[in-house]
Amino acid sequence: MLRLLCTGLALSAGAMAADPAIPSFTFNRDVLPVLQRNCQTCHRPGEIGPMALLSYEGTRPWAKAIKAAVVSRKMPPWFADPKYGHFANDRSLNEKDIATLATWSDAGAPEGDAKDKPTPVEWMEGWNIPKPDLVVEMPRDVKVPSNGTVEYTYLIVPTGFTEDKWVQQMEVRPGNRAVVHHANVYIRRPDSKWLRQYPVGVGFVPEEQKTSSSAGAPLLDENIAGFTPGKQTVVLRADQAKLIPAGSDIVFQMHYTPNGAGVTDRSKIGFIFSKTPPEKRVARIYAASTSFVIPPGASDYRVESAATLQADTELVSLKPHMHLRGKWMEFRAVYPTGEKEMLLRVPKYSFNWQLEFVLDRPKALPKGTRLEVSAGFDNSANNPFNPDASKTVRWGDQSWEEMMIGYFEVGFRPKMDLNDLFPAQYTQLE
Questions:
Q1: Contact by Cβ (8 Å): 179, 259
Q2: Backbone phi and psi for residue 157, each to the nearest 5 degrees, phi listed first
């Protein structure tokens, strides 16, 4: 009787495996296209992913780990609440893709027929954008000590531009990922007095950094690009571009975190110029709070900030910025009519994956729109990333301190004076 039962179960399992209604996935036909769309940007040589997922040989050993990561939605990293907004750079997997990867792993990760492979993606080595029209690199190495705290380091590089340049794509590439925590790139206008007392082409820590997180950069000296952990490259639409005026300098602001080795860094930025004048110039505005005081042990300390638009614009992208105690952030628009709209909700902020959320289509923001940002901070012992739950926490540059900034990239008439764009209540970030 037992033998008959076992035989019956074996036959039943065999029938299930042969059932055409049950999917059978292979790497070449089904898995590789998913990896190309959602994973290879990071998982290829020279990028942030710890292993390359370009081939079957490189992917097969990680099949079970891939299943665990996608089923738990740990990977690909994407933190926007799907109930609010639609984003062009959404790399989250849909249920079908998750099922494909999980079922493939459970089936022993078969390779499949080589003729089913899609055409390989032609990645530009060293860049996530196509080959740059111009690369501006630090002219010399910056020494990063083996230990201690390194204040933000600056390095100025002249562009030599004799005419205005419109930039449609740009990417900041750290020279040494092991020690570059983040980088900001500013455009110093030819008539700006900012940091003129410091040498060109040599790394320095300005005195102004002691009282301002951007060393007193005027708002008109725009923060045009940056690198943060996990940040995707942002590509503007064909009708959008950022302006670098003739005669401007590039100012690198580098945040280094020593790793015990005592190394050097030489970072760079690549530009792809717009082939035609844009319909919309793009620039960054923000809503920030610098006066918060987070009590020791607070598990969900709420901080608010807002900015009111002084001109008609269109929203291009949103980016939350907090440090290790950051828990969640929301972006809202309150229109002149009184109508309110949730633009973005990030219920689980990650300091290690500081993403920018690019709208799938620009959203009109009329003059008088109030842009509101709310954030929660977890300064309790239950936060595994908290440097010290017994400390009162205030604004500061270093990761064990905190920041609260909601960034908005907006498009506007190319000939608009930037003074007419920035909200009237702006003050320099302290």
A1: yes
A2: -130, 120
CB 166 within 8 A of CB 221: no
Percent of the chain whose pLDDT exceeds 90: 83
Q: How many helices (H) and strands (E) does the chain have?
A: 6, 18
DSSP secondary structure code for residue 87 in this structure: B
In the chain, residues under CATH classification 2.60.120.230 are 279-424
Average pLDDT for residues 160-180, to the nearest whole number?
Answer: 95
Q: Strand pairing partners for 180?
A: 256
Sign of the Cα torsion 183, 202, 273, 222 reads: positive
Q: Using CA atoms, how far apart are residues 223 and 419, in angstroms rounded to an integer?
A: 15
Using CB atoms within 10 Å of the CB of residue 1, give its burial: 0 to 12 exposed, 13 to 18 middle, 19+ buried. exposed
Q: Which residue has the tokens 């920018």?
A: 356
Q: How far apart are CA 415 and CA 399, in angstroms?
A: 38
pTM reported for the whole predicted model: 0.88
φ and ψ at residue 17, rounded to 5 degrees: -65, -30
* pLDDT band (50, 70, 90) for residue 403: very high
Distance in angstroms (rounded) separating the CA atoms of residues 278 and 238: 8
Convert 347-367 into a string of H (helix), E (strand) and C (coil): CCCCCCCCCCEEEEEEEEECC
Bridge-based pairing of strands 280-288 and 240-244 is: parallel
Query: pLDDT tens digit string along 374-401?
Result: 999 999 999 999 999 999 999 999 999 9
Residues 243-272 as b/e (b if ≥16 CB within 10 A, e otherwise) read: bbbebbbbbbbbbbebeeeebebebbbbbb
In the numeric block, the tokens 């638009």 are attached to 309
Whose tokens are 């190495």? That residue is 141
Pick the CATH number of 279-424 from 1.20.1600.10, 2.60.120.230, 3.10.690.10, 3.40.50.2300: 2.60.120.230
Which CATH number is 124-278's, of 3.90.550.10, 2.60.120.310, 1.20.120.80, 3.40.50.80? 2.60.120.310
Distances (CA, A) of 190 to 124, 158, 159, 361: 33, 10, 11, 34
Residues forming CATH 2.60.120.310 domain(s) in the chain: 124-278
E strands in 24-139? 134-137
Residue 51, CA atoms < 13 Å, CB-side half-sphere: 13
Q: Which of 42, 92, 49 shows the shortest CA–CA distance to 70? A: 92
C-alpha distances (whole Å) from 153 to each of 21, 60, 198, 214, 350 are: 60, 42, 12, 10, 25
- Phi and psi angles of residue 402, each rounded to the nearest 5 degrees, phi first: -135, 160
